[in-house]
């Protein structure tokens, strides 16, 4: 048991790492897994997620990933060096997808 009793949740930026630590096999995103670019300076986090037993899914900053089985929605947010409106778009998608899980 993960000890998490939440029915559903949304996590952004570095927070998806928490889900990877607490929920075995959870699918999350922090955006890219390709290190060495200025746009994704924290891409190494994807490897840490996989090492903790989670599964990192590559997405663009304006997208979110839905793990339907675990009812977790994640987006990269500030893990990407980009325009604020793109970060805003991804967080908006995350919120919309969490709300869909509540129905």
Structure in words:
The chain is α/β, with parallel strands linked by helices and 103 residues long. It has helices spanning 16-22, 45-51, 84-101; strands spanning 9-12, 27-28, 55-56, 65-67, 72-75. The strands form two sheets. The chain has a three-stranded mixed β-sheet with strand order 1-5-4, covered by helices on one side. Strand 2 (27-28), helix 2 (45-51) and strand 3 (55-56) form a beta-alpha-beta unit. Helix 1 (16-22) packs parallel to helix 2. The longest helix is centred in the C-terminal third of the chain and has 18 residues, at 84-101. It starts with 8 loop residues before the first strand and ends with a helix. The mean pLDDT is 93.
| Mean of residue pLDDT values | 93
Number of strand elements: 5
Which strand-content bin applies to the residues? 5-15%
What proportion of the residues is helical, as a percent range? 25-40%
Structural class: alpha/beta
First and last CA, distance:
25 Å
Spell out the helices and strands N to C: EHEHEEEH
Question: Tell me, what's the shape?
Answer: flat
The side-by-side strand order for the widest beta sheet comes to: 1-5-4
Low-confidence stretches: none
